Amino acid sequence: MPCLNLSTNVDLTGVDTSSILSEATKTVAKLINKPEAYVMIVLKGSVPISFGGTEEPAAYGELVSIGGLNPDVNKKLSAAIATILETKLSVPKSRYFLKFYDSKGSAFGWNGSTF
User: Fold this and answer.
1) CA-wise closest residue to 26 among 71, 84, 69, 74
2) Cα–Cα 20 to 30 A to 71, which of 29, 32, 77, 86?
3) Catalytic: 2?
4) 60 and 81 in contact (C-beta within 8 Å)?
């Protein structure tokens, strides 16, 4: 159950968020080797963010997964999500952080139980 939470200070009004969600879903599923049906993407825009003392376009993300994460995968995910943010939202790669959490199934509730 990978879940990618993305927050940006970019206004998403008029932005094709469906294409961002779709591309991020495919990317996460492929790189973590999980079915797309289990991937969740949360995208929040217009979040007040200051990065390096400026409020120019920036983003912060957290990716939580039950397995599938390791230093090599994390590096690929960081690059791929940064590219999506830069291409779709004009967030420079240098103004984006992504934090990774590899968790146990018992730490996630789903379908009235845990994994």
Assistant:
1) 84
2) 86
3) yes
4) no
Contacts of 96 (CB under 8 A, 6+ apart): 58, 59, 60, 61, 81, 82, 85
Side chain identity at 97, as an amino acid letter? Answer: F
| Catalytic entry in 2, 35, 48, 71 | 2
**34-53 pLDDT tens trace:** 999 999 999 999 999 999 99
What the chain holds in terms of domains, given with CATH numbers, is 3-114 (3.30.429.10)
**Residue 107 — very low, low, confident or very high, per pLDDT cuts 50/70/90?**
confident
Strand partners of residue 109? 114
Does the pTM exceed 0.85? yes
